[in-house]
Amino acid sequence: MTGTLYGLGVGPGDPELLTLKALRLLRACPVVAYPAPDTGQSFARSIASGYLSAEQTEYPIVVPMRIERFPAQDIYDVAARDLSRVLQDGQDVAVLCEGDPFFYGSFMYLYERLAGRFPCEIVPGVSSVMAGAAALGRPLAARNDVLTVIPGPLPDSEISDRLAAADAVAIIKIGRHFKRIRTLLEREGLTGSAGYLERISLAQERILPLAEAEGSAPYFSMILVYKGAENWITNLPVESSQIAANVSERAS
Amino acid sequence: MTGTLYGLGVGPGDPELLTLKALRLLRACPVVAYPAPDTGQSFARSIASGYLSAEQTEYPIVVPMRIERFPAQDIYDVAARDLSRVLQDGQDVAVLCEGDPFFYGSFMYLYERLAGRFPCEIVPGVSSVMAGAAALGRPLAARNDVLTVIPGPLPDSEISDRLAAADAVAIIKIGRHFKRIRTLLEREGLTGSAGYLERISLAQERILPLAEAEGSAPYFSMILVYKGAENWITNLPVESSQIAANVSERAS
């Protein structure tokens, strides 16, 4: 009897946004793994820390921040080897995944190494994109809108093409690409209908109209763009120019 | 003191995929509203039914199935008027939303009528798209993939254009459009890399390679398409042709 590998979505940051299923399985697993930077806290662990017990064995998968966007595959080779021993011993392993495990998550690097050899179960989680729309107080997509999720690291030309073809857009992984993407959206005339969000659902959450967002952005930041006459925004009582008002209310 | 309107995401179907926050607020609200068909059960209510108490007042928002895709706005005018009385009396109202409240949900029709007049809080939920990828055992999007969510009711030409521009694709609201979309994907040579899913996370869940999916599809069905050399599927130990194998394992 080998153990089962669980990929648990722990949501965007608020520990209360874990699902009942993720919490049950997290508490039941003797071994808990999670991605961790070489310096500082693991975000995934910080979300679930209140649910961990001293009896559980923790296994941080240390991914140096500087290569986070281009993970060194040997890190996951080592982690998969270590965790496969645990699974081989018949112990279940919970892997904590920020947001949803299969939505741009690093869990896939473990999954692709272990899925063929051990039973795996993925518990979907609340993604930062849905949490972002909730925090902004504006529907992400409605009716027959096409929703496009665009990673910020893509080149300008590609982002522009995707923007042109979409109704609702979430640009994720903004981080060091913030200034470039902000300039791009300004050029496209979309600044007024875009909201900037960082640390969604956490105490340090920041939500601003893109026009008011300045300086640098953390890796886990996002821009939601609401465009197109067919888009829901035209059906709301408030205009997109009033995102600012909503935001200041939230801030007060 | 007026009451607060809560839009609670109850997830794709499995009651255990509610978040801790949604459950807490659901139990705390004296009034619980949800969309309901004119005949048969409310799906949103069925997901949360185990958490409801006899002390709570239920308010079904009856939307005839035949117009579900083009909701009659007067239905929401009436519901908003009724619920605004409750909120005016200082009672909190929980609105149960399948999946995530702001991801193609009908909650927005209430929200756009009440958000300006009463405090509102949206609790994001697990969307069927994330749950679908988890059920299929295949990451939805990875690295710098562009993820596009396409509503099935859109015309062929538009769906084809969006397919051409995307890396990962979720086609939702398949329902009566199933045969047309299946033919379209066949024409695009994508049948082999597409999975068909219905009633995700429920006991009656059906997951099949698109090539094996036949007959009619319920409204809450979905097709996930994995295309493009840049896409994650090339990095998994199993090939897309083996979705069938995964599926039969799941079925057994």
TrEMBL record, chains A, B:
Entry keywords, A to Z: Cobalamin biosynthesis, Methyltransferase, S-adenosyl-L-methionine, Transferase
Q: Which PROSITE patterns match?
A: SUMT_2
Please list the GO biological process terms of this entry: methylation
Domain spans labelled Tetrapyrrole methylase = 4-209
Q: Name the pathway.
A: Cofactor biosynthesis; adenosylcobalamin biosynthesis
Q: Which GO terms describe its molecular function?
A: precorrin-2 C20-methyltransferase activity
Q: Which residues form a coiled coil?
A: none
E.C. designation(s): 2.1.1.130
**Cross-referenced InterPro entries:** 4pyrrol_Mease, 4pyrrol_Methylase_sf, 4pyrrole_Mease_sub1, 4pyrrole_Mease_sub2, CobI/CbiL, CobI/CbiL/CobIJ_dom, Uropor_MeTrfase_CS
Entry keyword Methyltransferase:
yes
NCBIfam families listed in its UniProt record = cobI_cbiL (TIGR01467)
Similarity field: Belongs to the precorrin methyltransferase family.
Q: What is this protein called?
A: Precorrin-2 C(20)-methyltransferase
Q: What is this organism's lineage?
A: Bacteria, Pseudomonadati, Pseudomonadota, Alphaproteobacteria, Hyphomicrobiales
